[in-house]
Amino acid sequence: MQKTGAIQATAPTSDQQVINSSPPPSITTEAKILPTVETPPAVAETKVLPEDSLSETRKSSLDVLTVTKGLLAELSSRTRKRKSPNPEVLQKQKQTLEEFFNMPLEAIQQANAYGNIEGIIHSLIQNSNDLREKTTLEILLARVAEFRESIPMAMAIKETAEARIISLLGKATVLDARLEEREKKLSFLVTEFSRLSKEEENLEAEIQFLITQKAEILAHKKHVLADMEKTNDETSEDVEE
Prior knowledge:
Strand content: under 5%
Radius of gyration: 69 Å
Keywords: Coiled coil
Shape: rod-shaped
Oligomer: single chain
Largest sheet: none
Helix content: over 70%
Number of strands: 0
């Protein structure tokens, strides 16, 4: 029993372990009281340009501004030149447009010149200051667009009609050859009919002549017969005497 008590006296309790593992109160308090040290912000250094550098900067700025103004003036001049139409160019465009309109539709379609025509009309509209002329050109542009859409269909119809005509011409050629043969045959038949009709007329005339001749022969025969009977009678009388 005493040994057990001695062992219990030497074994540390759980409360004692907690106390021994905790730091001393003085250390904990000091750790909490220590202030946080902040790093001061870096101060940017300001460079002071010398007078020569400032003068050169002003000069370069003035040079750039002068060059910029010169370029703006040049661009403005070129823009005005572009906006102001050249009368010779406009006249040339009108002549070209007139030449296009004098071309047959087939030639315009084959050359695919609708884009060129529309481009010229657009240019004339943009450069025209006459409201009536602009309206006329816009109407013309709409008509060209209509033609551009309708002409291919019309050309297809025309090609179909031409193919049909070629087919009919081929059939007509065959028919003409057949009719020519029929004509030759009919001509031969007409000639033959005329020949036979002539022969018939000749035979009819001969028949009429023969009938007349027959009638004359029969009349003469009858007369001869009567004369022969009379002669017989006279001869019989003479014989009886």
